[in-house]
């Protein structure tokens, strides 16, 4: 398993997919270290140690390269979510960027709207996103939401729904600031540790469940997705709204 993981790390490394490559190198090194512990043959042990040393050096170089890209503001990772793909809950997508120092979050999404609106976007997605932030490991204190007003009769439900989320978040010591814009089109999420995530479809990239009692209704890792692209950047200066 260690050899397979390291082989994958090398492939990702050659394809310049450094972030994913680093994860595989680290996992592979851990597995190979376990193999060394269980090996009695000294010659084999020596060969393993030599390889592990090489992989550790390469992993350290990649780590430095990623850090430099972050510092220079050049870091960019792209994830393509295919039509009907599963395994892309908010936790899976955002967790690695939600470090303990994250205390402030900005969400720009024009379609955080009423749940019964014909619009496919809903307040529930935003609520689910907020739930993820509260579970940690980050210590979020402030969430800024910039969205657009619902049209017609949905506006009252939209504002009352957001007010309810605001009240509920305050029970956890989190402040929600909501602002509205009639001209916004961009969808992006920013954390005050410098990470910025742009999702083509905003927070609403999940398909409707087939029924209220179908798999994927509760667990979003099992919910099929619409096709979309996720772009991840690191910026030294996260702009304020």
Automatic annotation (TrEMBL):
Keywords: Coiled coil. It holds the Pfam family MIT_C. The keyword Ion transport does not apply. Residues 45-72 form a coiled coil. Transmembrane segments: none annotated. Residues 1-71 form the MIT domain. Signal peptide: none annotated. The keyword Coiled coil applies. It comes from the Eukaryota. PANTHER family: MIT DOMAIN-CONTAINING PROTEIN 1 (PTHR21222). This is MITD1 protein. The gene is Mitd1.
């Amino acid at each position: 398993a260690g050899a397979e993981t390291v082989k994958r790390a090398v492939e990702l490394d050659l394809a310049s997919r450094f972030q994913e490559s680093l994860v595989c190198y680290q996992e592979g090194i851990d597995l190979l270290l376990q193999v060394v512990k269980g090996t009695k043959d000294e010659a084999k042990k020596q060969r393993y140690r030599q390889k592990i040393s090489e992989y550790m050096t390469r992993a350290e170089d990649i780590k430095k390269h990623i850090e430099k890209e972050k510092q220079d503001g050049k870091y960019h990772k792209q994830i393509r979510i295919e039509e009907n793909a599963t395994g892309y809950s908010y936790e899976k997508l955002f967790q690695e960027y939600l470090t303990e120092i994250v205390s402030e979050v900005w969400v720009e999404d024009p379609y955080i709207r009423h749940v019964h609106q014909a619009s496919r976007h809903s307040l529930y997605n935003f609520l689910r996103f907020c739930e993820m932030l509260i579970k940690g490991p980050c210590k979020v204190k402030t969430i800024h939401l910039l969205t657009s007003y619902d049209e017609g009769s949905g506006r009252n439900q939209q504002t009352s729904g957001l007010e309810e989320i605001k009240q509920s978040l305050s029970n956890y010591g989190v402040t929600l600031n909501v602002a509205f814009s009639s001209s916004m089109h961009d969808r992006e999420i920013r954390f005050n540790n410098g990470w910025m995530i742009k999702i083509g479809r905003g927070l609403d990239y999940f398909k409707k469940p087939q029924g209220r009692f179908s798999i994927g209704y509760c667990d979003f890792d099992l919910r099929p997705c619409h096709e979309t692209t996720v772009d991840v950047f690191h910026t030294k200066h996260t702009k304020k709204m």
